[in-house]
Every structure is written in C-alpha cells, then in structure tokens.
Amino acid sequence: MNRRRALQLLAALGTTGLAAACGNDTDGASGGTRGPIKIGLIAPQAGGLKAIGDEIVNGFQLFLDLNEQQLGGHPVTLITANEGNDVKSGKAAVDELLSQGVLALTGVVNSAVMLGIRDTVEKARVPLIGSNASPSTLQSVVYIWRTSYVLDEAGRALGGYLKEQLKPGSRLAIIMPDSVSGEDVERGFREEFGSSDPRLAGPVVWTTAADNPGKTAFSQDIRKALQKHPDAILCFFTGEAGVEFIKQLREAGYKGPVYAPGFLTEGTALESMKNDALNIQTALNYSADLSNTANRVFASEYRKKLSSSPTTYAMASYDAAQVLHQAIQLAGANPNPQEVNLALGKLGQIDSPRGIWQFNQPRTPQQKWYLRQVQRDGQVLSNVLISELATLG
C-alpha cells in the first residue's frame, strides 16, 4: 500500500479502522461488485446561513475525495438540495431527495427545519445524519442521527466553566435570539450555572432571531443589557447574525469579556468580525488546532483544498460521511436504507478530528468540549484551543 492510499484510509476510517479498510481495498482490487449509491445532502444555498451550508458541503466532499468518491465500497453520487430558510423549503428539499431514491440523507443547518422534517424522515424510513447542532426537543427518533451536538450542551459547557471562572460580585448579562436554539442554550447554561446565582444580571434579554439582521437590529436590546452594567456577556449567534451582533455590541461601547457557543466565531464569521472578535471565548466540540492523528490529516487536507482552516461545521459533515461509510460497509453489498440505519446503531467509537466519540442512546455524540479564545496568529485571527471543558452527551 503506497503512502497516498494509506493517508486516504487513515482519513476515512481513523487509526482504529485501518486494518478493516485494508481488507476492503483487497476486495475492490479483486473485482468487487458493489454498485453505485445516492446520498442526499440538504443545506442552505443562499441567505445568512449559506456560509454554514457551504462548510457542510465542503466537509462531506472532502471525505469523498479522500476515499476515492466511495462510501462503504460503493461509488457515490452526492445530490445536494437547497434547504432554504424555513420548514417549508426544508421539507421540499427532503421530498426532492427522497424521490430520487437516496440511500441516506445528511446536512440540515436550521434547527427549526430539523424539527419540521422529523416526521417526513421517520415515515420514509431513510436515515438522516444531521451535521449541525440540533434542538433538545428532537427526541424519540429512529432514523435521525446527529454528528454535531445538541444545543443545550453548549450552554451546559459554558455554565460549568463560568460558574468557576466568574468572581464573586461579578455581573453576567445574557442576550439570546428568541428561537428554539436560543432557548436551548439558555436553559442548558442555567442548569449548570444556577438559575438563582446572584451573578446573573437580571433576566435574559431576548432579541431577534433573523439570519440577516439589519445594522440596528440589536441596538435596543444591547442597550437594555448594558444598563445592567455587566462585567461579562453571554450570547448565542451564528453566521451573519453573529457578525452584526458583535459589531453593534462594540459600537455601543462594550469592550469587556464575551462568552458564547463556538458558532459565534466560526469560519467566515470570524474573518468578518476582524478586531471586534479579539479575546472572545467560546465553547465548542472542535478546534482546528487539536493535536490528534485524525485532525492532522483532516485539517491538512482541508487547508490544502480550500486554503482556509476547517470549522466544526465541516468537521461534523466529514464525520457524517465517515459514519455512513462504516455503516454502509457493515450493511453489505446491496444495502437498503433500513439496513444502513441498523448498522449505524452497531458502530462503536469514531476516530474523529474532534477526538474519539460515539453515539449515545438518543443518537447524538458523547464527546469532549473545548474552550477556545480568539487570538491573533500573525495577520490572521484564530480560535486558539485553551483547555478541555467537559465530556457531554
């Protein structure tokens, strides 16, 4: 086996799967008859969440590139469908992909869309590997799996950290979008930090959940939060909304500490924030500078292909491809969606760029969480790994 092939196999399966992959490679060389399959990928192709959708496509496609465009020994046709920005468009994307006979689905950025397509996916009995954070209210599912995290876990990771970090007498203001996602993060935070902790500077300030907020969309709510004279702010925003929130927060004169789930400073959002993002601390299940074999391969190949650092969105989608690869391999030469779904339940530990993880009973990852801080690396801003926070899930 040459070095290039070994690298591909290491990226595809991690160190724990290398021996099995070598056997599969031999099968292919001897004229295996595994036929082509279709995988459907749902992601927004326009609007404020498009950048996240692009990362999800990039991560899945990178895995295919490193695995000769195959999953489980089957040549793959990856069919993408536009998630849009609401449940109606998301459901239309699912229906379109199901009509084309896909073996499995993946993607989905918007939490509301994930909730809205639940019954369609369960009724179709086609596995969906969601590759972005999903709401805690998505429960009792059989065909929906997730490789990112459940939204309240981000709040729990930050709650445990700030409970120890904030000094007595400090005042923490919380600003959240009025959405399912915001409610999940806020609830998870309070569970760990304590709802009656005197360091909380009053009730949560709920603000707009728009993906493309205007240049004054947050101004009034930011003023309301700053009237509490906080020593630190906890928030949760993603994509363009996060960029606009931080810009308006700094314009309002606040220069103090900001804490958030890591989506706030991921990918192009961090580039757009520029110096406004310096020193923001975030909790996330991934950092591009994690030192493990799987991440060294993933991050190196991602940077080589896309000339940028990988994000948690790309990583979770890469892992979605990885678990599908292993499940399809287990399902045999002529798998159907139900067999692939059963095989997903038999997977053990996944050797991932984030570190080792595995599916728990609710079909979400049990995984480590990390603290990161935005720092300058030469001329580039980067989410620098500070420490481990907790294992959740």
UniProtKB/TrEMBL annotation:
Domain of life assignment: Bacteria
Family: Belongs to the leucine-binding protein family.
Sorted UniProt keywords: Signal
Source organism per UniProt: Micromonospora avicenniae
Signal sequence bounds: 1-21
One Pfam family this sequence matches: Peripla_BP_6
Lineage: Bacteria, Bacillati, Actinomycetota, Actinomycetes, Micromonosporales
The name this protein goes by in its record: Amino acid/amide ABC transporter substrate-binding protein, HAAT family
InterPro entries: BCAA_transport, Leu-bd, Peripla_BP_I
Domain Leucine-binding protein: 36-379
